[in-house]
Amino acid sequence: MNANLSIIIVSCNTQLLLEKALNSIQKSGDPFKKLLIVFDNGSKDGTQEMIKKKFPWVVYLRSEINLGFSKAVNRAAQQAQGDYLLLLNSDARLQEDSIQKAVEWMEQNPRCAVCGAQLLNEDGTLQNSIANFPTLLTELSNKSILRRLFPKKFPGKEYQSDRPQAVESVIGAFFLIRKTIWDELGGFDERYFFFFEETDFCLRATQRGYLVYYLPQVKVWHGQGKTAKTRLSEARIEYWKSRYRYFKTHHPLYKYLILRIGLLIRLFLTLFLESLLYLVTFGKRPTTRLKTAYKIALWHLKGMPDHMGLSSHQEIKCKKD
Known about the structure:
Blueprint: E1 4-11, H1 15-26, E2 33-41, H2 47-54, E3 59-63, H3 69-77, E4 84-88, E5 92-94, H4 98-108, E6 112-120, E7 130-131, H5 136-140, H6 143-149, E8 165-167, E9 169-170, E10 174-178, H7 179-185, H8 197-207, E11 211-222, H9 226-229, H10 232-250, H11 253-280, H12 288-301
Parallel strand pairs: 1-2, 1-4, 2-3, 6-11
Antiparallel strand pairs: 4-10, 5-11, 6-10, 7-9, 8-11
């Protein structure tokens, strides 16, 4: 097999996790020629020094400010070579055969534009690796309940299959793309600073007749949000921004307005119930849900400004954690 690929990892103050990800790539037991590109979104934790010392063969790109995930990937992809582009989270680690199994599948299935892996927790338990395209039903109801009641329509870790299956979208921790299709679609939509960029890409690919596949035979360990948990409230605001943007782009105006109203009702109901719980427990420490809901509500009340969340006109400094 003559296929070769470029691997892109975007990192912001995740030096220890990044090192583990790079080590797992070094140990990958596949025959492919690989170009590894790390895009550093303004880290202050010694990432640059670690790369130079331990992985001098890596193509290291750096921005002094946090450009956001989509823009960082697009800039890194300008350096990419080969038939495939693998986007790997800095908190992910490959098994030795992950790349080989994924590329072999793509080589045998030319209509497949994107494939994703079965993501695993550290203890080997399953994570949700498939995502449906966001609709009013998915966003205004409980996704876990939908997955349990309708596992074929809303596949998740509760519904297991040992065969590859065509899906709407896959989680972007391991995101293997044909380079020709990446170029055809123009990469990620840079209006998404963080979240929903891979869902948007999968939707645009399927609209052109390509397929997206989930590959259960490809296993990848994933920290599941460790890169965002240090700034949870800001990350949730960024999630809301991206969700609104996705609906504005891909749904009629009336559905976007219904989403806004429905989500605000849920938000203020959460605020009321969590505040009531805080009061009946005689003012013990407020829950994380209360703090996060309060900041999201405040963001709405201020007119949803860009400077709240993880982004600030795409020029937020990457803080040291």
